């Protein structure tokens, strides 16, 4: 689905949404075998494992549940960000924007697909955006997760300048 949406339909924004009062999060934190659901629940348990030190400090069960829901959304956003199809499209759009001479901010804002983490509170009917800092959470591990060379602004700027210089230099006569 992700491959088709990003690679073929050109989807520019991906939304990962969780919700409070989530039965899957509650099931993942209970000690019971739920058969075929275990493959799915294991991902939530892995989120708990990754954030165990922080989560174990939370004594209120409702706050613990809400925090685990939020962390699960953030981790699933990171999982989407690490996929080949997303990295490929982001590298492609970054390169295209840089070659067009866009500024750093225009490049930063224009690279897609963009990934958004949201959490829904059904008790209040409120949908809230979660902050996901990809650079902080994955950037230092680019040597592991980065499937494509990160095209840097200054490298492309140099290439653009070189191309412009070549086009204004008359060809040498033979």
Biggest sheet features = 3 strands, mixed
Tell me the span between the first and last alpha carbons.
Answer: 56 Å
Q: What is the alpha-carbon Rg in Å?
A: 21 Å
Strand order of the largest sheet: 1-2-3
**Number of DSSP strands?**
3
Helical content stands at 55-70%
Tally the helices: what do you get?
A: 10
Structural class: mainly alpha
Q: Spell out the helices and strands N to C.
A: HEHHHHHHEEHHH
Beta content? 5-15%
Mean pLDDT: 88
- Contiguous runs where pLDDT drops below 50 for at least 5 residues: none
Report what the structure shows:
By secondary structure, the protein is mainly alpha-helical. It has 10 helices and 3 strands; from the N terminus they run αβααααααββααα. The protein is elongated. The mean pLDDT is 88.
Short description:
This protein is mostly helical.
Write the layout of secondary structure elements.
Blueprint: H1 2-8, E1 13-19, H2 23-28, H3 38-50, H4 52-55, H5 61-81, H6 84-99, H7 104-110, E2 114-121, E3 126-130, H8 134-137, H9 142-145, H10 153-168
Parallel strand pairs: 1-2
Antiparallel strand pairs: 2-3
Features:
3-stranded mixed sheet, elongated, 174 residues, 10 helices, mainly alpha
């Amino acid at each position: 689905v992700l491959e088709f949406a990003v690679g073929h339909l050109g989807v520019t924004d991906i939304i990962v949404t969780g919700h409070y009062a989530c039965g899957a999060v509650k099931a993942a934190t209970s000690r019971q075998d739920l058969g075929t659901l275990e493959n799915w629940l294991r991902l939530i348990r892995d989120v708990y494992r990754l954030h165990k030190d922080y989560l174990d400090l939370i004594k209120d069960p409702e706050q613990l549940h809400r925090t685990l829901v939020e962390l699960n959304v953030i981790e699933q956003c990171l999982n989407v960000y690490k996929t080949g199809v997303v990295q490929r499209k982001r590298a492609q759009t970054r390169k295209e924007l840089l070659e067009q001479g866009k500024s750093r901010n225009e490049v930063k804002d224009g690279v897609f697909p963009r990934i958004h983490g949201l959490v829904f509170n059904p008790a209040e009917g409120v949908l809230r955006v979660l902050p996901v800092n990809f650079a902080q959470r994955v950037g230092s591990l680019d040597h592991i997760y980065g499937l494509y060379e990160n095209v840097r602004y200054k490298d492309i700027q140099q290439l653009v300048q070189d191309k412009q210089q070549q086009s204004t230099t008359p060809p040498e006569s033979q």
